[in-house]
Design goal:
single chain, about 70 residues, mainly alpha, 2 helices, rod-shaped
């Protein structure tokens, strides 16, 4: 039994997996924090753009003025 415990303590096969799981969890946690910090500002910006585009009017200009330039001599 003591030999099994000593071998178990020296065995590092699962240590790399645990490291990657902890690292991945940290990255996911940081991404969630960043999303929460950015989402309010991004939504406000999207609302401002929507308001500006909704109230904008499109003008076509002079009907004969586009693409009908006189040739230069």
């Amino acid at each position: 039994m003591i030999k099994f415990i000593k071998n178990f303590r020296k065995d590092e096969d699962g240590a790399v997996t645990v490291d990657w799981v902890v690292l991945t969890a940290a990255v996911v946690g940081l991404a969630a924090v960043a999303y929460n910090g950015i989402s309010g500002g991004a939504q406000g910006l999207a609302d401002n753009v929507n308001t500006s585009l909704s109230s904008a009017t499109v003008t076509h200009g002079d009907a004969g003025g586009l693409g009908t330039a006189a040739p230069s001599e």
